[in-house]
Structure formats: C-alpha cells, structure tokens
Amino acid sequence: MQQTRAVELGTGLFVFMGILALFFLTTRVTSFDAYEGGEGYELTARFDQVGSLKTRSPVSIAGVQIGRVTAVEFDNERLEAVVTMRIASRYDQIPSDSDASILTQGILGGQYVGLQPGGAEDYFADGDEILFTQSAVVLEQLISKYLFSQGGGE
Amino acid sequence: MGLEVLYSLRGFFGTFGAGQLFLLRIIVNMPYALARPRLIIRQVYVTGVQSLVVIMLAGFFVGMVLALQAHLTLSRFGAEDTIGMVAALGLVRELGPVVTALLFAGRAGTALSSEIGLMRATDQLSGMEMMAVDPIKRVVVPRFLGGVIAMPILAVIFSAMGIFGAWLEGVIILGVDEGAFWSQMQAQVDLRDDVMSGVIKSFFFGIAASLLAVFEGYNCVPTAEGVGRATTRGVVHTSLTVLVLNFMLTAWLLGGN
After folding, report:
1. Are the beta carbons of A25 and B38 separated by less than 8 Å?
2. Do A22 and B156 touch (CB under 8 A)?
3. Residues of B whose CB is below 8 A from A64
4. Taking CB atoms and an 8 Å limit, are B159 and A8 in contact across chains?
C-alpha cells in the first residue's frame, strides 16, 4: 500500500512537472500574444512589392508591435499584392490616413509592416483598407538604381 | 545472393505486418486497461519518473553545448544575441523530441523488452493465459500506454531543461545580454509551429518506441539469449524508426507552411 502511494505521488509530480515545463515553453520561450485569440480588427493594404513578407510577420507602429499579418495574397485583376493584417482591439485609435510601409528588422531580420500615423480625425475600423502604402525595397533594384545614377553622372 | 535478399525482405515485411497486427490488438484491448488506471499510472512511473534524471541531465548539457556552438559561430557576425533563439528552436523542434526518444529507447524501452521477454521465458505469460488472464490486456497494454503518455512529457521537460542550460551557458558564462537572449527567442519561436509540432512529434515517437519495445519483448525466443537479442533488437529498431519517422513527420509538419 505504501509503495502504491509513492508511485501515485511520483507520477503526479512527474505529470505536474511536464505541465510546468510546457507552461514555461509557451510563456517564456514563445511570444504568447494576447491578441491572437481572434479579437481585434482586420485591415488590408495593397503593395506593388512585398519582398519577403510572410503571414505572421509583425505589424508595428512607432516600433511597438500592435498586430500580425494574417494573409499575403495576389490580386489577379489589379496585379498587386494584398496584405491582410489583424490589429489588437486595444489599438483602435489609428488615424484613417496613416500609411503602411514594408520595412526590414536589422540586417538579418525578417520584414514587417510599419504604420506611420497620419493626422485624420477618424480612425480605422474593421475591414478598412490602408490607402497610402510604400513597397518593400528590393536590394537588386536599389543596386541597379545606384549603378545607373553613377553612369549618368559622367 | 538474390534469394537471400528475397528472404530478408520477406522477413522485414513479415515483421512489419506482425507489428501492425500487434498494434491493432493493443488498440482493441485498450478499454480494459483504461478501466484500470492504476496499472497505467504504475507504468508511467516506471517509464517516465525513472527516466527523468537521465532526460534532465541530457537536456541540460545538450542546451549548454548548443549555446556554446552557436556562440562560437554567431559571434563572428556579431549576432551572439540570437543564441537563445538558435538553442530554443533546435531543442523544441528537433533535439527535444528526437534525443528524448533515443534515450527513452535505451532507458525505458530496454527495460520493457527485457521485462516482458523474461515473463515469456519464465512462462509467466502462459501462466496468465492458463488463468484466463489475457497478457495483452494485463501486461502489454498498460506498458504501451505508460510509454505513450510519458514520452511527450519527457520531451517537454528535456526542452525546458535545454533552454535552462543554454541560458546558463549563454547568459551567465558567456555574457550575452539577458534581455536580448529572451526577446530574440520570443520573437522567433512560435507556439503552434515550433512548440506544438515538437509535442506532436514526441507523441508519435512515444507510440513507435513503446510499440517496438513491447512487441520485441512479447515475441522473443523464450531463452536467456532470446531475451538479450530481443532487447538489442528493440533499441536498434526503435532508434532507426525514430530517425526515419522524424524525417517524415518534419516534412509533414513543415509542409503546411
């Protein structure tokens, strides 16, 4: 009987340790974002060039992450990329003339959507489209521009 | 020569089919074991709790060496802040599930195979049958379920210990900034794609490792030599199966992205 209790106690502690470890992995190791549970509102934006932007890339304003990209699709008719992003509902006072640009985090970092607040009186609501956008900078295009400008100077 | 290949192929597929039938018998008999949770708890204790020290030590040192290696390479690019991320991704996605399964095969799998094999060799299994107790229900299913339950828990503990080891080596010993260590990790490690895919993997490894261990033990030649051979075969087959399965599961889990 005594031994059975020890076995049960040991197993219970073992499972508890497993739960604790999983809790550590989810909260400490990953960014367990509160706004991923579906709350928040969606915005779309059209870009000529999204570079290597992917779903789940961050959306930030003034350097603070406020949401994530939920879809990157191609519009067959207008031949543009359509980026859908979900913004946390507590950031609901973004002026409706704000512009979105695709930026890069550091040299080795991935790409993200940066919002630049505008000055309009009204705010973005669910389903709105960001009208002012700036595409990703493609390194090859940048280099060729630089080379052409060098040639033209002579 | 050609005949030999044919024979070994026949042996392989024969064993493969027998293993599948064995799994089917286990699944069919599962309700009986589930009605007696004490038997399963006892096996979770034997396979899980008694492997805990091995798993924790291994995880800790794997994490430390990951941080050391990552630091050596990444510091050349001035990117040593990312060692937390490198260690965490490596542990959670690959090393946690795989190394745990390999250690499990060596620590718990051998114990299962030899225990059941010895029961076979000493006629305990036939004795049970004589008393109208199905050894599959009473002996095999609880051991199988114990392994399946213990494996994901062990893998999660392994990963957590590994990250602790990486933190100790990276932040305390090598002097990487602590804030950068955690924030880089949190920015890149994803709950669903990384942590959960590791847990799913280790669940499948648990099924494979436990099944092979009980299968080899149950079907061993009932002699001292036979038990030894079955135990060896169990470890070898489990290790290879885990590595092959790992490739397939990784391809499947990454295929969604």
Report:
1. no
2. yes
3. none
4. no
Higher per-residue confidence, A36 vs A146: A146
Instruction: Supply the pTM of this predicted model.
Output: 0.78
> CB–CB of B112/B231 below 8 Å?
no
Kindly report the nearest CA distance between residue B153 and chain A, in angstroms. Answer: 5
Region of A127 please: left (phi>0), alpha (psi -120 to 50) or beta: left
Q: Is B222 exposed, middle or buried (0-12, 13-18, 19+ CB in 10 A)?
A: middle
Task: Determine the Cα–Cα distance for residues B92 and B99; give it in Å rounded to an integer.
Answer: 11
- Say how many CA atoms lie within 13 Å of A19 toward its Cβ: 6
Assess B203–A contact: CB distance below 8 Å, yes or no. no
Q: How many CA atoms lie within 13 A of B114 on its CB side?
A: 14
Please choose, from the candidates A118, A42, A116, A122, the residue with its C-alpha nearest in 3D space to the C-alpha of residue A83.
A42
A87-112 per-residue burial string, b: 16 or more CB within 10 A, e: under 16: bbeebeebeeebebbbbbeeeeebbb
Of these ranges, B28-37, B142-151, B187-196, the one predicted with the greatest mean pLDDT is: B142-151
Residue B12, pLDDT above cutoff 50 = yes
Sheet holding A132-134, edge to edge: A128-130, A41-47, A80-87, A64-75, A58-61, A111-116, A99-104, A132-134
Mean pLDDT of chain B: 91
Q: Is B88 on the interface with A (CB under 8 A)?
A: yes
Interchain CB contact of B186 with A (< 8 Å):
yes
Distance from CA of B237 to the nearest CA of A (A): 27
Confidence at residue B213, expressed as pLDDT on a 0 to 100 scale: 94
> Which pair of structure tokens corresponds to residue B150?
């213990």
ipTM over 0.90: no
Q: Is A9 on the interface with B (CB under 8 A)?
A: no
pLDDT score at B193: 81
Beta-carbon pairs below 8 A across chains A and B: 74
